[in-house]
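User: Can you predict the 3D structure for this chain?
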Amino acid sequence: MDQIELLKRCQEGDELAWEVLVRREQGRVCSIAYGYVGDRDEALDLAQEIFVRLYHRLDTCRDTEKFHSWLLRISRNACLDHLRRRKARPPRQDIPADEMPALKSAVPTPEEDWIQSSRQRLVHQALRCLSEISREMILLKDIQGLPLEEIARLLDLPLGTIKSRSSRARVELARAIVDLGGGPGGPENPGSIGAEAAS
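Assistant: Here is the predicted structure, written as structure tokens:
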């Protein structure tokens, strides 16, 4: 079933189609959340919140051919809301996962598979060193593959501003990777960022 038909069936209330959509998009949503919060467990919780928002706003996706842009917009807004709430509350005291083995799943989740690669980890470690503006540019353009024109509409900024931010973000990321010990031929090659981080 193609994406357009799947979304239409979800909008008509087909619960099975919704389950298929969630399975199909959970890796993308988790990667978006992880890009903003930088913590796997927090990203998993945030991804659940994002899917709840998506479910309740399915009817707002008028152009089904632009589903992924719509999904990314809602995901980004949810992430920004989450970050604002996190700044407003004191840090939580988490129980280490290894002290609660009953909560662990033996089956790796898509985002766990996604984070495994050492090169991917290097890219995402470097992302945490960037400014918020540069990190978001890399996340939207290089990891999520959004065209610059769509990013300009999403952020409500001139295209020229987005182009210059994108260039600066790539330079900043390359320097961060080198500082973290990224060797020649590694993910510091800007052309490989999207493939490394999103695969």
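DSSP finds ten helices and no strands in the chain. Confidence is low (pLDDT under 50) at residues 97-106, 185-191.
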